[in-house]
Design brief:
The protein is mainly alpha-helical. It has 17 helices and two strands.
Length: about 350
C-alpha cells in the first residue's frame, strides 16, 4: 500500500465507522446503496411529469446550490481547508456564463466548461498564497475575497462588460431537438444531468489515490508530507477543483435565474453554502443535496412563519437541526441505518434461538 493510502485509511474516512460495526449478516440483508441511488434517480427523472413549473424552478435551484456546496465540501470536508469565499467563485462562474451569452451569443451549454476553467484558474492562483495561511487566517483571507467580489463587479471600467449595478439579464433557453419539454422542464433535466455527472466525478476523485492523499493531508499533514505527499500541490489543486465545481454551479444558476447582479454574490451567500455543508454533512457527497434543500427552503419557511422575526426563526430551526443531527443529515442517516441493521440482527438472533 502506498504512503497516502496507508495514512488515509487510518482516520481519513471516519464517516463509515458506524457502518463497520454492523455484523456481516445484517450487512448482507441490508438494501444495497446503489438500489437507493437508483430509486432516487428514477424519482428525480419522473418529477417533471407531475410538478408545476415553479416547483421545478425551485428544485433546479436546489441542485445548483447542492453543486456549489459539493465544491465547498471537496475543499473543507475532504481537504480540511476552511473557506468563507465561495460566493466569489459562484459569482465568477455566473458572470462568465452571462457575459459569454450576452456579449458573444455563446450557447449556454458551452458556458459551463468555460466557467469551470476560469474558476479553476482563479481558485488555483488564490490557493498559492493561501498555502501560507491556515485555520482562522485562511478563513479571513477568503472572507476578504467574498467581500471584495461585489465591488469588483461594480468597478467602473468593467461596467460595459458586467453591466455594473444593473447586472445582466438573460433569456431562458428552450429544449433542443424539438423535445416536448418547456424551458423549466428542460433546465431541470439539464441541471440534473450535470449534477449527477459531477457527483460521480467527485466520488471517483475521493476514492482515488489522489483523493486518499487529499484526505491524508487533512488528517495528518506532517505525516503525509514526511511520506512524500506533495502537500502544496494537492492543496492548490483541491482549491482549484473546488472553485471549478462552484463556478459551474454559478453558471447554471445564472442560466436558471436569467439574471446576474453584483449584490447577489455577497458574503452571506458564502455563509449559506457553509450552513448547507454542515446541515448536509461534512465529507458527504450526497449530503450536499440536503444542504441545497436547506439553503433554498428553510429561509422561505422562516419567512412564512414570521415576517418580522424570520431571522430568529431561521436561527432557531438551524439550531434545532444541528441539535438533532450533530453530524449532519448524512451522519444521521448512517447512524439510523446502523441502528436499524443492529436491531434487525438482534431480532434475527432471537428468532433463531427460539426456533427448535
Amino acid at each position: 500500500m502506498s504512503a497516502p493510502d496507508d495514512i488515509a485509511t487510518k482516520q481519513s474516512v471516519p464517516f463509515d465507522a458506524a457502518e463497520a460495526s454492523v455484523g456481516s449478516a445484517a450487512t448482507a440483508r441490508a438494501t444495497p446503496r446503489y438500489v437507493w441511488a437508483l430509486a432516487a434517480a428514477v424519482l428525480a427523472a419522473l418529477l417533471p411529469l407531475v410538478a408545476t413549473n415553479f416547483v421545478l424552478f425551485q428544485l433546479t435551484l436546489v441542485m445548483v446550490y447542492g453543486l456549489a456546496i459539493l465544491g465547498l465540501n471537496l475543499l473543507t470536508g475532504f481537504n480540511g481547508q476552511f473557506s468563507l469565499g465561495h460566493s466569489a467563485f459562484y459569482g465568477i462562474g455566473a458572470y462568465t456564463a452571462a457575459i459569454l451569452m450576452d456579449h458573444w451569443d455563446v450557447a449556454y451549454f458551452y458556458t459551463l466548461p468555460a466557467a469551470g476553467v476560469v474558476c479553476f484558474v482563479v481558485g488555483f492562483l488564490f490557493g498559492l498564497p493561501a498555502l501560507r495561511l491556515q485555520n482562522l487566517y485562511l478563513a479571513l483571507a477568503t472572507f476578504a475575497l467574498a467581500t471584495a467580489m461585489p465591488q469588483i463587479l461594480k468597478f467602473g471600467p468593467l461596467e460595459p462588460l458586467t453591466g455594473g449595478v444593473q447586472g445582466i439579464a438573460l433569456i431562458k433557453p428552450d429544449a433542443p431537438l424539438r423535445l416536448p419539454l418547456n424551458p423549466d422542464q428542460w433546465l431541470y433535466y439539464f441541471t440534473l444531468a450535470v449534477l449527477l455527472l459531477l457527483m460521480a466525478a467527485a466520488w471517483n476523485l475521493v476514492h482515488s489515490r489522489s483523493g486518499r492523499a487529499i484526505m491524508a493531508i487533512r488528517d495528518h499533514p506532517i505525516a503525509a508530507a514526511s511520506m512524500g505527499v506533495n502537500t502544496a500541490l494537492y492543496k492548490t489543486l483541491t482549491f482549484g477543483v473546488s472553485a471549478l465545481y462552484t463556478g459551474i454551479a454559478g453558471a447554471l444558476g445564472a442560466i436558471v435565474v436569467q439574471f446576474v447582479a453584483p449584490d447577489s454574490f455577497n458574503f452571506l451567500l458564502s455563509v449559506s453554502f457553509l450552513v448547507g455543508l454542515v446541515i448536509g454533512g461534512v465529507g458527504s457527497i450526497p449530503g450536499s443535496i440536503v444542504g441545497g434543500l436547506f439553503v433554498l427552503y428553510v429561509p422561505n419557511i422562516a419567512e412564512s412563519i414570521s415576517t418580522g422575526l424570520s431571522g430568529a426563526v431561521y436561527g432557531l430551526i438551524m439550531l434545532l437541526v444541528i441539535y438533532v443531527m450533530p453530524s449532519g443529515a448524512a451522519g444521521f442517516a448512517r447512524l439510523a441505518a446502523a441502528q436499524s441493521a443492529k436491531a434487525r440482527q438482534t431480532w434475527i438472533n432471537r428468532s433463531e434461538r427460539r426456533s427448535p
